[in-house]
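Please fill in the sequence for the structure shown.

STRUCTURE ENCODING:
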C-alpha cells in the first residue's frame, strides 16, 4: 500500500535559504537524503489524516521536499518509487521552461510571431489575425483561438480557429500550448525529447519520456523539477536557465484577464481566477487554504506540483482523479491544503506576516517610496526586501520611516524588519507599481 513516512523540518525565518543550504540528490540512482520526525519539529497531529485523505482520494504518490530533502513520501495501491505515471497538463510548465531555455540560447524570442516558426497558415484564421499570435501568447493561454472546438487537442489548421484577437481573451487551449513543442523542435533542429534530455535531464537527473505531448516519469522526477524551479534554474552549481527575468515573469500574472495564470503556471493569492473552458471570473484566491505565495503546475486527474518559494517546499501528488472534476484545478486542492496548512505549522513564511499589528507599511501599492510605522518599543534596525523567488533584492539600515524602492521592477515583494540582533520583527507584502 504505502509507505515511508518522513517529516520535514520547518523553515524558520529570518533568512531565506540559499543555494548552498539546499540539498540536491545525485544525478544517478535512488539516493536521496531525508529528514526524520525528530529533526522536523513538525505539527504531527494531522499526519494520519493526511495519509487517509490521500489514500481515499485515489493518490498513487505523494512527496514533500523541504530544502531539497525528502520530508514525507508515501505510495498507495501498488504504486512505488520506481513506478511511472503521466503528468498530464502539469507538464505544461516543463515545456514552458524549455521555451525559456530556447530563448536564452537565442533560438527564439517570446515576442516573435508563432508563424515565424510554424509557417503561415498554421491556423484557419486570416494571415492578419494569425500574425497577431506570439510565443508569449501561447505561454499565457491568450492566443484568441477557439477552445470550444470539438477536439481541443487537434493541431490541424482547421481546428485552430480564430475567435478573438490575440491578447484579448484568456482560454485554456491545449492545441495552442502543444505547438510550443513544435516551435522548439523547428528552431533547434532536435526532437523535443532530445532537447529535454540535453538541456534539462542530463543536468538534473530528471528522467522521463514525452509521448504525444504528454510527459511520463517517476514521482521523484517531478520533485527534481520542483527543486530546479525553487533554485531559479540552478542545479547544484549547474545552470539550466540563467534568465531571471523569464523566471520572474513565469510565476507572475501574464495577462490582465486571468490574474492567477503565469507562463503555464497557476498562481495563488491573486484574488481572482478563471477555469478552463469557462469565461467566468471567480473573485477569490485559487486555493484559499494554501499560502498566498504558492504557485503550482496542475494536471488533469489531480497531477500536482505545488511550490512555496520562501520555505523552499515542493509537494508532488500523482494519481487517479480524486473526484468527478476533469479540470486541472478541483476541490481536492483546497481540501488537501486544509490538512497541509495544519501540518506545515509555525508558518512564518514571506507571505504571512510574522506580526500583523506590529508594523504597518503604506501606501500599498506604491511606486517610489514605501513608508512604515511601528509600535512603540520595537527596535527595528534593518530592512530586507525579497522578490517572489525568495531572492534578496535590497537591504539597508533603518535611518527613517521611509524606504526608496524606485529601482525595483514592478511586481510583488516582501519586506522584512529585523532588530539589532537580526531577529525578525515582522514581514509585510507590498506591490511595486
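FILLED IN BY: designer on duty
SEQUENCE:
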Amino acid at each position: 500500500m504505502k509507505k515511508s513516512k518522513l517529516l520535514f523540518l520547518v523553515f524558520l525565518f529570518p533568512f531565506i535559504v540559499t543555494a548552498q543550504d539546499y540539498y540536491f540528490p545525485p544525478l544517478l540512482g535512488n539516493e536521496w537524503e531525508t529528514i526524520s520526525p525528530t529533526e522536523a519539529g513538525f505539527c504531527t497531529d494531522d499526519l494520519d489524516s493526511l495519509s487517509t485523505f490521500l489514500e481515499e482520494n485515489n493518490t498513487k504518490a505523494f512527496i514533500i521536499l523541504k530544502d531539497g530533502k525528502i520530508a514525507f513520501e508515501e505510495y498507495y495501491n501498488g504504486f512505488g518509487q520506481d513506478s511511472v505515471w503521466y503528468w498530464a497538463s502539469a507538464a505544461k510548465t516543463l515545456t514552458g521552461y524549455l521555451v525559456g531555455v530556447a530563448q536564452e540560447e537565442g533560438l527564439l524570442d517570446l515576442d516573435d510571431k508563432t508563424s515565424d516558426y510554424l509557417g503561415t497558415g498554421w491556423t484557419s484564421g486570416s494571415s492578419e489575425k494569425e500574425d497577431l499570435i506570439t510565443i508569449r501568447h501561447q505561454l499565457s493561454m491568450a492566443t484568441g483561438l477557439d477552445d470550444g472546438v470539438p477536439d481541443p487537442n487537434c493541431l490541424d489548421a482547421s481546428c485552430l480557429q480564430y475567435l478573438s484577437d490575440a491578447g484579448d481573451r484568456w482560454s485554456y487551449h491545449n492545441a495552442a500550448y502543444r505547438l510550443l513543442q513544435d516551435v522548439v523542435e523547428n528552431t533547434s533542429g532536435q526532437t523535443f525529447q532530445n532537447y529535454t534530455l540535453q538541456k534539462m535531464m542530463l543536468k538534473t537527473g530528471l528522467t522521463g519520456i514525452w509521448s504525444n505531448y504528454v510527459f511520463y516519469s517517476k514521482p521523484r522526477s517531478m520533485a527534481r523539477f520542483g527543486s530546479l524551479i525553487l533554485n531559479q534554474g540552478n542545479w547544484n552549481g549547474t545552470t539550466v536557465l540563467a534568465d531571471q527575468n523569464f523566471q520572474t515573469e513565469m510565476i507572475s500574472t501574464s495577462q490582465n484577464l486571468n490574474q492567477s495564470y503565469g507562463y503555464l503556471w497557476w498562481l495563488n493569492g491573486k484574488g481572482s481566477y478563471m477555469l478552463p473552458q469557462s469565461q467566468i471570473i471567480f473573485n477569490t484566491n485559487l486555493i484559499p487554504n494554501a499560502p498566498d505565495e504558492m504557485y503550482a503546475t496542475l494536471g488533469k486527474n489531480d497531477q500536482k506540483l505545488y511550490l512555496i518559494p520562501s520555505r523552499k517546499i515542493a509537494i508532488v501528488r500523482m494519481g487517479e482523479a480524486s473526484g468527478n472534476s476533469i479540470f486541472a484545478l478541483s476541490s481536492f486542492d483546497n481540501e488537501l491544503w486544509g490538512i497541509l496548512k495544519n501540518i506545515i505549522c509555525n508558518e512564518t513564511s514571506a507571505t504571512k506576516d510574522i506580526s500583523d499589528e506590529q508594523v504597518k507599511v503604506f501606501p500599498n501599492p506604491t511606486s517610489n517610496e514605501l513608508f512604515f510605522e511601528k509600535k512603540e518599543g520595537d527596535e527595528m534596525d534593518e530592512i530586507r526586501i525579497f522578490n517572489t523567488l525568495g531572492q534578496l533584492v535590497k537591504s539597508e539600515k533603518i535611518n527613517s520611516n521611509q524606504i526608496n524602492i524606485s529601482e525595483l521592477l514592478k511586481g510583488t515583494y516582501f519586506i522584512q524588519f529585523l532588530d539589532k540582533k537580526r531577529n525578525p520583527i515582522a514581514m509585510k507584502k507590498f506591490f511595486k507599481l
